[in-house]
Design brief:
4 copies of one chain form a homotetramer. In chain A, 57% of the residues lie in helices and 7% in strands. Chain A has a 3-stranded antiparallel β-sheet. The radius of gyration of chain A is 22 Å and the shape is globular. Chain A is mainly alpha-helical. The model of chain A has no long low-confidence stretch (mean pLDDT 94). In chain A, helix 9 packs antiparallel against helix 10. In chain A, a hairpin with a 2-residue loop joins strand 3 and strand 4. Chain A has 11 helices and 5 strands.
């Protein structure tokens, strides 16, 4: 069975991306334009292009403390090359860190037409199912979310998914004891759905946006880091037994 | 020992990237502007911004046949999530595929001030050391290279590294029996060095540029692929023994 | 918050594994004994030790055609080091390849006490939920399964989980149009549950068993492979458009 | 071009490993016997089998503080599956952590027949080239090394490579201001070369030995960990600027 793709081809040394000559894209289009093209198959409108820029910039980095940054830098510290350290950092984007954009998009997609949001949220709370895209381990309010929603309104992408996301936020906070604001994963998901992306692509946009930040961290570690890292003795505790006989 | 970074911070829910407010970058800057910022620490000039776009677009995808695309898609076909498939594809960017941008940049950096290029190339040929950044497994001429060099000239980034890269090309082809044109890795390396990036960052720019292409391949595999892939029986041969007794 | 572990420690240059002196384990115990120890916290009985050997050996390799072997070798072919190629191959063990051992173990764990297996299987068939641990893309009968079940009976580990797995097989094949034999993932899961392992550990045992096979493939590729691999032109097809104007 | 392998095949549901029936290996051989077989192509002698067990057990784990364990656990803490966390941990085995077994073996292989070791070591010291396989970030004496050397002598594998490794140790410590004992990577390398393994396989044996330890750490993190991990605010410092204007 042949492999099939509609993404790109190379013929006699001439590359096409989604049917467009690569050299012509290089001459006339921005990177985020071509990111949109390669994911969606069409070039973005001016509004789509500006929204993509805001979405990708929103994801670019979020401090050295997050698992993906720490993992990338630890892997770099053991003497690995850039692509190896980058891959390890990307692996740290599990369901609880980065991955929630896809989960939130899947939740919004499947539930948007629900008749009564309060009943839905109540039933999820009862089953102790966490709604993805709300709450943050550290942040109580996320300025990125406010900025994304403002930009989406300005550019005409604050549609039914964004509306739904805010209604869920309201309903959630009516029944939750702790504050559960729409977080960056949820906002990203809602805006991207309103732009016509699907949930897997929502996760993809997050990853495209964050890769430059991880690369900056790895570069900093490689050029200014202290060499091989490991936990200090006072950072861990051994709770197993001792001196067992065989 | 504390971890230290100058890349980004989050304070009271307000993110800074290299000292700039993230929300202000979201409002006013393009993605490639902020890619430049996060890697270099300063915002790009207009010329730097346009050069970055051309460089990143040049890398975005190169057909389904390359190892990174095949690896990503195989990993996706076994039922993995997007970030896992992406990381596996990134791991396929070894020295012979993608990694050469860094090697070429290191070669250009360390040899640029050599007095006699022909002597240098002759001596490498004698020691059978391959010069990174020249030649391609499939392409004899790469339109991306022509386009990048043209853009670099137009924007004022065709400097001493680019000149050196072309002199090496001339010298190489004078002694090589097969054609060894400057390839995309070499062109990327030369232009990025002339812009002030270092060799590790050159590899980083390639990876940032290619990640969207890989994500498009994984998305296509997940949504339109045939399910679990494996080699057909006629695609491999077993050359080991049979029926050995224990 | 401190990291905590009961697995191992190093104190004044003396290592303990689950409380046992490492050097004493090196002197007296086999590798699979210590694999059991590090996973379970106790040394195996003679029967457990022999069962572990059979389980790990069963997983060691399964031809060059599977996704994990192909991915490892592709990554090695681009000029990567062994650990990078190994990690990429491990990433290919998704839900449809290797990962099913954990899914099967979770299914057996959660359903073992079901009152009527035929009702359960009928209801899953109706909802089009695939039962993990049954069927194989290529094999109609798997000699590894027969051998594992025989060994488990001989050593006293053919318990209630194994019985349940066979009852499910019978029930499945009564309603399925294609043959769905208990496969290696299912057999591994059932025997390991009967030995007292949990579902995550079942997947772990598969991975421990298969890593040597992947390393043999990577070594073969590095020492005897053809260099950089890519798809031939007749192995793929481009289905996208051409010559679109910007 | 066909893929070719001498490692394993599956024919009509019957697996062969290096020509031996897999089910027969499952019935009669230990895991480390078959690890030896899959790497080397022949079954081990009794002495080789016992040496393999000691080598693999020596590598099985080395505390929670090393980069590979921390990386694996961080990746698990973000909600990933076992194989993803395992791959990330394996990526942390760079040149300075785990990878040195291969470097040491390459050094021993290429230098063993050197006429004057003191001259060699003096010249490397002058060029500030670190000799791989000596010294340890934490340990001054490594009981695993003593135990491996003792086992190798007992079983007849303390050959010319082991002798060479000890002569290098003597020579190194005559000129070094800090103690540089033969470390586990160096001891592993020397014994494996004396058994007939090559440098890539030496790294492979280390990885095979350590994978069960990593899996135990990931399992512990998944079942007893605190959930999503990140650095505390007092564990890092932001050294970049603030409030820059665009």
């Amino acid at each position: 069975m042949k492999w099939r793709t509609a993404i790109s081809e190379v013929e006699h040394g001439k590359e096409s991306i989604r049917g467009y000559e690569l050299t012509s894209l290089m001459a006339k289009k921005s990177f985020s334009d071509v990111v949109f093209l390669v994911l969606r198959g069409t070039l973005p409108s001016a509004a789509e292009a500006r929204m993509m820029d805001a979405l990708l910039v929103a994801c670019i980095d979020h401090g050295i403390g997050v698992a993906s940054a720490v993992v990338s830098r630890l892997t770099a510290s053991t003497g690995n090359s850039l692509h190896t350290a980058l891959a390890s950092g990307i692996l740290a984007f599990g369901k609880l860190h980065g991955g929630a954009a896809q989960d939130a998009a899947e939740f919004f997609s499947s539930q948007k037409d629900t008749a009564d949001i309060d009943v839905l949220i109540g039933s999820l709370k009862e089953k102790k199912i966490r709604v993805p895209g709300y709450g943050h381990k550290v942040l109580l309010e996320d300025s990125r979310v406010t900025a994304l929603c403002a930009k989406a309104r300005e550019l005409g992408f604050f549609g039914t998914y964004c509306e739904f996301a805010l209604m869920v936020e309201k309903s959630l906070n009516a029944v939750s004891s702790k504050k559960l604001p729409l977080n960056i994963d949820g906002a990203l998901a809602a805006v991207l759905l309103d732009m016509g992306f699907d949930p897997i692509q929502a996760r993809g946009v997050f990853l495209i946006g964050r890769v430059p930040g991880l690369i900056a961290h790895i570069h900093e570690e490689m050029t200014q880091g202290p060499g091989l890292r490991r936990l200090r003795e006072d950072e861990y505790e051994y709770t197993g037994g001792k001196n067992k006989k065989i």
